[in-house]
Amino acid sequence: MICRPRSAVVVGAILLVAVAAAFLWALWAGSVQVSSAELIASFYGGEGTGAAVIRELRLPRAVAAFTSGALLALAGALMQVLLRNPLADPYVLGISGGAAVGALSAILVGAATWLVDGAAFAGAALAMLVVFGLSRGDGSWTQSRLLLTGVIVAAGCGAVVVFMLVMTTDTKVQSMLFWLTGDVSGAARPWPALAVLGVGLLAILPFARDLNVLARGELSARALGVRTRRLRLLVYLLASMLTATAVTLVGLVGFVGLIVPHLVRLVIGNDQRTLLPASALAGGALLMLADTAARTMVAPIQLPVGVLTAMIGVPVFLFLLVRHPR
Amino acid sequence: MSSALAPLLEADGLAVQIGERWICCDLSLRLMPGERLVLLGPNGAGKTTLLHTLAGLREAQRGEVRLQGRPLTDWPGRELAQVRGVQPQSQPDWFSATVMETALVGRHPHLGRWAWESGDDMRIANEALACMGLDHMVERNILTLSGGERQRLAIASLLAQRPALYLLDEPLSHLDLHYQMAVLAHFSALARAGAGVAMVLHDLNLAARFADHVVLLDGTGKMVSGTADEVLQADVLSAAFGHPLRRHVIEGRVAFLVE
């Protein structure tokens, strides 16, 4: 399939409708019943419990779910091109491990929520710098060296995380586990992350066709005039920042970053010009759906959202895989 | 700018090294539009490295390579890719893509940053695919292609790039006899139309038939460069390849027999 601009517009329109539908469901569903009149009124500063619940609880939560889903799916798509490995995900280079060590350390000392977020971001940034520094050690900056360094740093962080879980008292373990499986409910201020998503998309889209060429291999890309060193550095930094932002917002939500780019690829092909924005929209829609389902399915129990992303994504993915033998 | 009589590709006092090992110490060559250069040598002699140096993908230790009279180091990447095309020795594929999408990758240097492939680009890619006998499978997933089909697709992608100088690294690998001849005939036709071709080959008989100039690397840093007739002599080749060869002229064509 050749993705012409026209088909890109069609795909974009379908995804925007899906995002809008998921968004409205996220605002509407929940233990407090709201009428459609209240739903509409809440956008115009309406009074009453329903409008307050929507504005103060469901709206930030829906935006947080959309933003983190979109960030992770975009970061995953970028990592897959950067490492030229379809099995890469946003967490493969140890950024999530660094964030987890940071967040869990903060929880361990009983820090406030904003400090946990700050520690998570600092941990992610530190892991990113360590992997970047070590993988460039001999100046070669090859993707196998990058991947190996990332995987080792991730493994080291994993060991530290387990150590902290074992050494911690019961009450704190609960919040640690919630952070580790991903939790959208605590994300009260998702707007800066949404801005990061916008900046990230704007920064990479001018290079989307360059990424198509890079996916054919480093040598071919250089022969076709792509400045691969600069491009790979940009992709690495961008994917890392997007991932760090997402895990700071909602913790380690798994699955979205790996599966969504593949899902989109199965439907519209591997043209990065459409794949990147489509992945972001699809990831956002999927995480909004999953989060709304997670808080309403067996209410009042809230399921970890990562369980739901897998429960929705796996059947869809397998269906597409069987239908398209490509 | 350069006139039609200026050399397409020129190397002056070129010295190329891999690690501690010298590939060549003082190579000078000129390739005019319409000429075909063949790089020969045993395994590991540095043919690919030399080709990459001529392509500007690798820096030389000493000396200079000029394309259309302008040093390669002065060419911006995208402009360079509009004029010289490279077919790499192997083309690994990690992601699904259609045959047509892959051929269109060759159009990359001709498109602006925000441009999408136009009808013209599609037509050029289609012609390139037709040349390589792939035009009936434009929608096929490249991960399902055979080795020979992949090789033809890599060449089609290069043809879609439409450079003035073609640099081919073992263009005949995985190809059956029919396509080996078709590929060499096609690049010879492009040369007659004014392009320059430099290629790494293994078959001495095909080199004798399709080369105007030959650079022979022997793997120890020594090198012979000259016209095809000068270099393709039994004693020179026997020494370089470490195996005795005999040169015959059969029905007006040079042929080498392995002892």
Automatic annotation (TrEMBL), chain A:
Q: What compartments host this protein?
A: Cell membrane
Membrane topology is:
Multi-pass membrane protein
- Going by the entry's taxonomy, the superkingdom of the source organism is recorded as Bacteria
Q: 4Fe-4S as a keyword?
A: no
Say yes or no: keyword Metal-binding present.
no
GO-annotated cellular components: plasma membrane
Q: Which residues cross the membrane?
A: 60-79, 91-112, 118-134, 146-168, 188-208, 233-263, 301-322
Keywords for the protein's UniProt record, in alphabetical order: Cell membrane, Membrane, Transmembrane, Transmembrane helix, Transport
Annotated InterPro entries: ABC_BtuC-like, ABC_transptr_permease_BtuC
Major location, coarse class?
membrane
Record Pfam families: FecCD
MF terms (GO), sorted A to Z: transmembrane transporter activity
Stored PANTHER family? ABC TRANSPORTER PERMEASE PROTEIN MJ0876-RELATED (PTHR30472:SF25), FERRIC ENTEROBACTIN TRANSPORT SYSTEM PERMEASE PROTEIN (PTHR30472)
Family, similarity comment: Belongs to the binding-protein-dependent transport system permease family. FecCD subfamily.
Indicate what this protein is called per its UniProt record.
Answer: Iron ABC transporter permease
Automatic annotation (TrEMBL), chain B:
Q: Which InterPro entries match?
A: AAA+_ATPase, ABC_transporter-like_ATP-bd, ABC_transporter-like_CS, P-loop_NTPase
- One matching Pfam family, short form? ABC_tran
Q: Where is the ABC transporter domain?
A: 9-244
**Which residues, if any, are the signal sequence?**
none
GO molecular function, a single term:
ATP binding
Per UniProt, the keywords (alphabetical) are: ATP-binding, Cell membrane, Membrane, Nucleotide-binding, Translocase, Transport
User: What does the record give as the function of this protein?
Assistant: Part of the ABC transporter complex HmuTUV involved in hemin import. Responsible for energy coupling to the transport system.
The name on file for this protein is ABC transporter ATP-binding protein
Which species? Denitromonas iodatirespirans
Tell me the organism's taxonomic lineage.
Answer: Bacteria, Pseudomonadati, Pseudomonadota, Betaproteobacteria, Rhodocyclales
